């Protein structure tokens, strides 16, 4: 018997996964998303920048999307993986609507689903390179949570991804309160986004603010913040720093 003749190519033994492609490194990415609870619902902010490596290549990348009737999703990280997550969620919402039972998935259920998706992909060593913020309102109950690319997740009264987790959260801890009005909530988000614009090289001065209440989702038109670049620390940021150029 000719064993050589019956031998299959080595890659046939690996199965269909042998040809799968993975996001080995994020290419086009979005930076921070900042969100908070306010008196009537959830407010969320993100800029429209898409960075190709360290180059701010795209200036109109929307990173906040409504999910079903009760939820709003924001994402930082790889844009193509965010689009894949949106496809997953479209299928989830379609399946939920097909039951036609008068019920619909709320923000807590959608957030739990996303935590399982992110953790599952991490365990396959094929993560979705995103940090996600999911907020919503259902039956008068406000919900706000986040999940990282490896499935780490939590709920809070205010959350942020990316650089915002380091620069915006201290501002939110200081200024946020439970009875925040819509106007004060927008001002607080703008304060956070202005700090990120000054300090995060991937941020651009073109942002949107979204709100979700019992009535639904509203996402603002893109706009720019007023900035001031004449601070003395901006004139020579390396002055007095030992070992810098």
TrEMBL record:
Subcellular location: Cytoplasm; Nucleus
Protein name, entry field: Proteasome subunit beta
Function: Non-catalytic component of the proteasome.
Keywords: Cytoplasm, Nucleus, Proteasome
The protein's assembly and partners: Component of the 20S core complex of the 26S proteasome. The 26S proteasome is composed of a core protease (CP), known as the 20S proteasome, capped at one or both ends by the 19S regulatory particle (RP/PA700). The 20S proteasome core is composed of 28 subunits that are arranged in four stacked rings, resulting in a barrel-shaped structure. The two end rings are each formed by seven alpha subunits, and the two central rings are each formed by seven beta subunits. The catalytic chamber with the active sites is on the inside of the barrel.
Entry annotated with the keyword Transport: no
Signal peptide range: none
CDD domains: proteasome_beta_type_4
């Amino acid at each position: 018997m000719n064993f050589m003749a019956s031998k299959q190519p080595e890659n046939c033994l690996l199965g269909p996964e042998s040809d799968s492609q993975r996001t080995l490194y994020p290419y086009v990415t979005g930076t921070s998303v900042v969100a908070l609870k306010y008196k009537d619902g959830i407010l969320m902010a993100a800029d429209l920048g898409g960075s190709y490596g360290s180059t701010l290549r795209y200036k109109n990348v929307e990173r906040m999307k409504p999910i079903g009737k009760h939820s709003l999703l924001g994402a930082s990280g790889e844009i193509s993986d965010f689009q894949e997550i949106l496809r997953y969620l479209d299928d989830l919402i379609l399946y939920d609507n097909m039951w036609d039972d008068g019920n619909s998935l709320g923000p807590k259920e959608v957030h739990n689903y996303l935590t399982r998706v992110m953790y599952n992909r991490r365990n396959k060593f094929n993560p979705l390179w995103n940090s996600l913020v999911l907020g919503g309102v259902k039956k008068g109950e406000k919900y706000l949570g986040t999940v990282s690319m490896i499935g780490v997740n939590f709920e809070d009264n205010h959350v942020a991804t990316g650089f915002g987790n380091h620069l915006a959260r201290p501002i939110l801890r200081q200024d946020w309160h439970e009875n925040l009005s819509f106007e004060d909530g927008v001002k607080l988000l703008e304060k956070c986004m202005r700090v990120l614009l000054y300090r995060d090289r991937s941020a651009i001065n073109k942002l949107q603010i979204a709100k979700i209440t019992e009535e639904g989702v509203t996402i603002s038109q893109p706009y720019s913040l007023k900035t001031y670049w004449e601070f003395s620390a901006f004139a020579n940021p390396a002055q007095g720093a030992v070992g810098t150029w």
